[in-house]
Specification:
Anti-sigma-factor_SerPK, 4 helices, alpha+beta, HATPase_C_sf, nucleotide-binding, ATP-binding protein, Heat Shock Protein 90
């Protein structure tokens, strides 16, 4: 439910700003980031979208301070229980990363990815 709401909201925002060409990939990345935050959370999660100088940054904040599992090799992910979502982010985004982050008195992390509009 939360990921569906994120996808619809993101599609609306990108359409309104003339960035419809980024929508499919942006929806996939936002879904993976939010799903990861919700799955590992101990409290609230949030999605953030920012457009600046031809770069769309999509980020998800969650209260779990542990870093996401680093994506393994594609061959290893077919049987893996975890890591496929971040592997998709790594494969589809131009750049991605994470940083510790505090929000509303809770410690957590902010995981983000960039899509460069060509």
């Amino acid at each position: 439910m939360k990921t569906a709401l994120c996808r619809r909201t993101l599609r609306l925002i990108l359409t309104m700003h003339g960035l419809i060409r980024l929508t499919d990939t942006a929806e996939l990345l936002a879904t993976e980031l939010v799903a990861n935050s919700v799955r590992h959370r101990k409290g609230p999660a949030a999605l953030r979208v920012r457009w600046s100088d031809g770069v769309l940054r999509i980020g998800a904040w969650g209260t779990d301070p542990e870093p996401p599992e680093p994506p393994g090799r594609w061959e290893q992910l077919t049987e893996a229980e975890e890591g496929r979502g971040m592997a998709l982010v790594r494969a589809c985004a131009d750049l991605w990363g994470r940083q510790p982050h505090a929000r509303e008195g809770s410690r957590g992390k902010y995981v983000w990815c960039d899509l460069v509009a060509i």
